[in-house]
Design a protein that fits this description.
Radius of gyration: 20 Å
CATH topology of the largest domain: Quinone Oxidoreductase, Chain A, domain 1
Shape: globular
Strand content: 25-35%
Protein name: Enoyl reductase (ER) domain-containing protein
CATH architecture of the largest domain: Alpha-Beta Complex
CATH class of the largest domain: Alpha Beta
Number of helices: 10
Keywords: NADP, Oxidoreductase
Pfam families: ADH_N (PF08240), ADH_zinc_N (PF00107)
GO molecular function: NADPH binding; quinone binding; quinone reductase (NADPH) activity
Structural class: alpha/beta
Organism: Dreissena polymorpha
Number of strands: 15
């Protein structure tokens, strides 16, 4: 590298989107068995919005820079790296932080190859949502072939990924979303039914669709405001995976007895703060099972859904876009030109 300094997106805790700015900081030093990735693109996640607002700090010892995923090329390796990653390899990774920058240090065990023929900009839409969706379904949700799965926020990155993974696993995804365009996208990805939570009681529709049986598994990023409808929608002895609280975290009333009567298994899970060994296992399983299906010549192709792409210095606009909740799929922040590798900070 020509310099030991890099550009990154700076924020002050609690700031609005317009408080994001391009500033300079040292390139991260490599710790044991880490790889330095020259970042070409990252993507915006709800966690980034929460961290900017001061509500979701980075785990201890991890970068305070925003960004939970990145795609790029290998720029350097720690001396004790044992993997077969080479300088220039096209890679992508789930991060604990640091993606909104020209360079990021990544443990070698959580790197994944970018699928053949896929641009680095598109690849930035894979790590966080696809690994999250895979974890929710397989490592936590105990997905079984033939399951009917209720997926909330079906137009989100995780929602679009989970829908496709359910189809691949021989399951039946039912999706909720807040606009017809998001419902149409879900149906095009293989959802067997899609309901607008703004216009109808989705629990009634779910029970009608399943002939009163209910669903085997719920992927729930909403929480409190969906509790009653979820409890009606889930079958006896169903599984319920809670991974977000967009609708609040406080529930009052006859909660425990409902869980007891239906013998429902509710599991809460997060991914960012999981230990490295867990993320290594998740990455390996996803790489073996799902990643080959992103190739264009696959008989069942998985597709990262990209809503929009913003240049590096327009991070504020990217955050504003996510806060409107109008996106279907991922909002990508492009750090470098795909062809030249030059950084997109033309306003500097």
């Amino acid at each position: 590298m020509a310099s030991d300094q890099m550009k990154y997106i700076h924020f002050e805790k609690g700031c609005e989107p317009d408080g994001l700015s391009v500033q300079t900081t040292p390139v991260p030093a490599l710790r044991s068995r880490e790889v330095l990735v020259k970042v070409f693109a990252t993507a915006i996640n709800r966690a980034d919005i929460l961290q900017r607002r001061g509500m979701y700090p980075a785990p201890p010892g991890e970068s305070d820079i925003l960004g939970l995923e990145a795609s790029g090329t290998v720029a350097a390796r720690a001396d004790d790296c044992t993997s077969q990653w080479h300088i220039g390899d096209r890679v992508m990774a789930l991060l604990a932080g640091g993606g909104y920058a020209e360079y990021v240090a990544v443990p070698e065990d959580v790197l994944m190859p970018v699928p053949s023929g896929m641009s680095l900009t598109t690849a930035a839409g894979i790590p966080e949502v696809w690994l999250t969706a895979y974890q929710l379904l397989h490592l936590v949700g105990d997905l079984q072939k033939g399951d009917t799965v209720l997926i909330h926020a079906g137009g989100s990155g995780v929602g679009t990924a989970a829908t496709q993974l359910c189809v691949y696993a021989g399951c039946r995804p039912i999706v909720t979303a807040g606009s017809q365009s998001k419902l149409d996208t879900a149906l095009s990805l293989g959802a067997v039914a899609a309901f607008n939570y703004k216009q109808e009681d989705f629990s009634e529709k779910v029970l009608e669709f399943t002939n009163g049986r209910g669903v085997d598994l719920i992927l729930d990023c909403i929480g409190a405001s969906y509790y009653e409808q979820n409890m009606k929608s889930i079958k006896t002895e169903g599984r319920w995976v809670l991974y977000g609280l967009l609708g609040g975290g406080s529930i009052s009333g006859d909660v425990l007895s409902q869980i007891l009567r239906k013998r429902v298994r509710i599991t809460g899970t997060t991914l960012r703060v999981r230990p490295l060994e867990y993320k290594k296992t998740l990455t390996q399983r996803f790489t073996q099972d799902a990643l080959p299906l992103f190739k264009a010549d696959s008989s069942l192709q998985l597709t990262p859904i990209i809503d929009s792409v913003f240049p590096f210095h327009k991070a504020a606009d990217a955050h504003k876009s996510m806060e409107t909740n109008q996106n279907t799929g991922k909002i990508v922040l492009q750090i470098r030109h795909e062809d030249t590798g030059k950084t997109l900070h033309d306003e500097l």
